[in-house]
Amino acid sequence: MPKQLSREVPAALGAAERQRLHWAESNADLLAEASYAPWFEAIHREVPRILAMERDDPAPLQPWPALVEPATHRRWWGWNHALSQLLRSLPERFFASDPAALFDFLGVGSELLFDLVLSEPDGVSSALFRGDYLLTEEGLRCIELNVGAVGGWQNIAYGRLYEELPVWRRFLSENGLRAHFDDTVERMFEHAVRSTREAIDPPGSEINLLILVAESGLSVAETHPQRLYEDLYRRALGAVNPALRGQLLVAPNADLTFRRGQVRCGETAIHAVIEQDTEVTSRPLFRAFKAGSVHLLTGPLSMIFGDKRWLALMSTHQESDRFDEAERELIRQVVPWTRQLGPHEATWQGEAVFLPEWVEQAREELIIKSGQGYGGREIYIGCRTSPEEWRQAVADALDDGQWIVQEYLPTVPSPALARGGGWQPHDVVWGLFDLGDGASGGFLRSAPRQSEGRGVLNLVQGARIGLYFEVESE
Fold first, then answer.
1. What's the pLDDT tens digit per position in 115-150?
2. By C-alpha distance, which of 13, 27, 21 is closest to 166?
């Protein structure tokens, strides 16, 4: 094992990460993959296939959680919540929520669809938000914003199982540390109960929540930890009001029926719905939501708020009177230079540039992305792309008219367990959640730092899902 590993941890990651690697120098089991087998076994008892992977393939999950100090965590939460509120306000600020203007800007859907989505009830204030961030030497920087049917939250529930892992408990005990895990799933269930009572005021004391999933060749029991969800939902009901009762169900659209304005799954009346894997809200469910018979916490909002061009609007107009001074400072602090890619001028580091020509020439400093792309698709990192491929990608993006260009951000590598054991620096995307009424945890996507490849972090490219804990001295 290499010595003095703790010296290789960048200062931006904080003392807890350095302390963990220092402890690993004399406690080799912290770096042994076998030490984390009990965690995977506990997860597999809840869900046989993590992210639909086979039982003998734990690859989707990173066994090492990231460690964050409380003051840093609070600062990140504050930024994420402020960006969440800011994003929700942008259609009104820039376009007066006018469907025709939004359609002209986004170029997807239709005026009628935007009118329907944003008519009351719209669910914007209670929808799930996730900001995606990179950690740089200057601090956290937001690279994407998402509202609606955002993913990743379901894996955070496994953090409760991590707390019982022997090697983790020993590390905390011997170093005089305590760790706090913010469970997005339980917080989201509490939020669902509260917002459902406000939105539709179900009769009696029953609130039944449905997690709507996509059809697949696998059963719900194989791919979703329903027993764990049910336990967390019972806690959420009790936290809101001990008199409340209800069920949590996980099912696909095919299991739903719609009668007399009610949504049912089997014989159970549904009061709230969280769409997890579905890309399109069904018409009957959307009608029930608009009629006020069910509360939809996700819905088709992603079509509007999931576009990366909102980030470009923030960056482009950050010094304008569309934002107050606190908002301008937030954008300067957290949002990287981002512009909509088109045949117009922009200012880069104080100089006026004509984007089509300059973007082609400044490849090493830039990233281009489709405004509507997701899952690591339609992203080109200039320094990881050949000049020929970059020229073609820029030309195609200009023809499409719905892409952004963003400054490339060198990131701080984070220590994580390598496949097969041992420590290795990883590139990380931090996904932080907000529920409209406050922050609620997050998760990581990480992959070993490499000098080759596209540099895009997603599961298809070999990234793994990870957790983080807030850690401080006892």
1. 998 899 998 888 889 999 999 988 899 999 988 778
2. 27
Which strand ranges, in their side-by-side order, compose the sheet holding 338-340?
Answer: 338-340, 403-407, 366-370, 379-381
| Burial environment of residue 56 by CB neighbours within 10 A (0 to 12, 13 to 18, 19 or more) | exposed
**Cβ(95)–Cβ(266) below 8 Å:** no
User: Is the bond into 202 cis (omega within 30 degrees of 0)?
Assistant: no
DSSP per-residue string spanning 225-267? -HHHHHHHHHHHHHHH-TT-B--EEEEEGGGEEEETTEEEETT
Name the region of 338 (left: φ>0; alpha: ψ -120 to 50; beta: rest). Answer: beta
Q: What is the DSSP string of 278-299?
A: -SS--HHHHHHHHTTSSEESSG
With bands split at pLDDT 50, 70 and 90, how would you rate the model's confidence at 436? confident
pTM of the model: 0.92
Structure tokens at 332: 């300067």
Residue with token string 């951000």 = 409
Produce one character per residue of 181-215: b if its CB has 16 or more CB atoms within 10 Å, e if not. bbbbbbbbbbbbbbbbbebbebeeeebbbbbbbee
Amino acid at 460: V
Rounded to an integer, what distance in angstroms lies between the CA atom of residue 79 and that of residue 86?
Answer: 10
